[in-house]
Amino acid sequence: MPPESGCNNPINEARNMLKLLSALIVTLIAAGPAFADIAGKKPNIIFIITDDQGYADLSATGNPILKTPNIDKLYAEAVRFSDFHVSPTCAPTRSALLTGRHEFRNGITHTINERERLNPESVTLAETLKAAGYTTGIFGKWHLGDEPDRWPTKRGFDEMFIHGAGGIGQSYPGSCGDAPGNKYFNPAILHNSKFEKTTGYCTDVFFGQATKWVESVNGKQPFLAWIATNAPHAPLDARPEDEAKYTGKVPPNVAKYFGMISNIDDNVGRLMARLAEMKIDRETLVIMINDNGGTAGTKVFNAGMRGQKGTPYLGGTRAFSIWHWPAQLKPADVPALAAHIDFFPTIAEIAGAPLSDKARSQINGRSLVPLLENPSADWSDRMLVTHVGRWQKGKAADSKYAGMSIRNTRFQLVSVGKGGQKNWELFDVKADPGQEKNVIADHPEVVKEMEAFYDKWWAETLPLMVNEEHEGKGPAVNTFKELYWKQFGK
Fold this sequence. Notes:
Structural class: alpha/beta
Low-confidence stretches: 1-7, 24-34
Largest sheet: 11 strands, mixed
Oligomer: single chain
Mean pLDDT: 94
Strand content: 15-25%
Shape: globular
Order of helices and strands: HEHEHHEEEEHEHHEHEEEHHHEEEEHH
Helix content: 25-40%
Number of helices: 13
């Protein structure tokens, strides 16, 4: 018998073992990457949220003109949610991220007129993390109440470095307003209880202060650094050298807008480099999200989506959602339907932060931990409600169908009728992501199910819109103005 034949021959056994190993490798590759058990890991957390940047405003998501190499690198190394949705405007999204429940249930139905203030009864993520041993800091945009009893320091943040209103220099009747005369360059920023006159461009200032704070708390206890840029929100005011990168390639306002995003990208690069120098880059969870649909750049590129900021279509709510944690998460795309209301329960689970009964009862979202651990994990279908809000004073009850949608994994039911009248359109967003064909006549059963869900949701939510009665009842002078004048004089 030849030496290589026979069932017990060592050569044959080695060959069989190699075949088994090859088959196992093929099976593992087909099943997707293996992920770590991340619940309770208590990482440092840096959360970056930009203002009025859209899903399509990254080169990583296909923009053919805008270049964002640092965010692209973060994106390539991260878990990325490709069907993640936020609110159509900014303050609502921020409240949902912080509380795990729909913005209307936090009382937030607008971005001004006392209707942007977070309900004091809502439990925040910052409060929950503090109870679990974290220190917390916010840098940039707050936009959830400018009166002192509603500042971040009253909502769980240890460190506060913010501008007022929804943007630097904005001012409205009532409480919503920034320091007088503020600009994107050298802004006066409220640092805890006093204003500081800063030097430099606003985005550089916010990232710089956040980095300084991270350096000061690193190694003492886990931290949450909430970095919320006001860029690239209008007024479109970019550093000249950033705007120059796109001058002549796109319309002038888009060149400014893209320049502002380019500056954000530079700051992300500097932040990640500093984390590497501190040797905490692999153990720090860095998350980056945009707060609503795109604005100035949508006519140049909108990733094939319909709509933009202020609309209930996909272009008004779809967000890039980047979760970067090299020590624990391997790069992957997650196609499951996810949303801003999932952020709080996800972070709480990762941080090992127990939810109080009150927090648990308010959360409408789901923890994304199973999907972060396994992008192909089972994820049952769900319905998500989007509503633009912003109705006229006293018109909440009449605005049920004014700029809203119900979304499940496959379909989106939309009403954008004038005057709050029901005007249904149904889109099969899997077959028609550009939402070009209304298929409402083909799926009456889907419309019936979604409408029944929305009827119940609206009836439960309307009584929770606690800010409606406060519109027009704010202070005669913005709090930030008063404090600024007290500190520096008029």
